[in-house]
Amino acid sequence: MSSFQVIVSKVIDAPSEAVYNVIIDMDEHRKILPKEFTALTVEKGGRGAGTVVRAEMQVMGVKAAHRLVISEPEPGRIMKEVDTNTGVDTTWTVTPRDGGQRCELKLDTVMRVKPGFQGWVEKLITPGIMRGMYRRELDQIAAYVRTKQ
Description:
Elements: E1 3-12, H1 16-24, H2 26-29, E2 37-44, E3 52-59, E4 62-74, E5 78-83, E6 89-97, E7 102-112, H3 116-148
Antiparallel strand pairs: 1-7, 2-3, 3-4, 4-5, 5-6, 6-7
């Protein structure tokens, strides 16, 4: 099955620990979601590895439901979300910069596409939509973390 990858990153004027805490804590995380997310419900846990959430989105009039299982391959630096419904795999990586005063936050998503014409259209359109959403989310994280400092 064919797939594509979307990678977006941003340097944020905040320590990596502050940024990482926002992405692994679902109470905090829901405050930085782009407008396409219409709901985020915690099924299990709520912070870090082992957390399971349901996320609902609406993009270009199409509603989608995701069930995300959270892991931390490298606690404090890397969080991974795997959608058990679709297999979409997103890795969040926080890397300290400038002696720890700033950090780079990178989102890296691998998504399988459907076969045939529908998959061709998906592979053509979806990466651009996702990049725009991710850039807004990174901007919202940066703004949110600044308000907490």
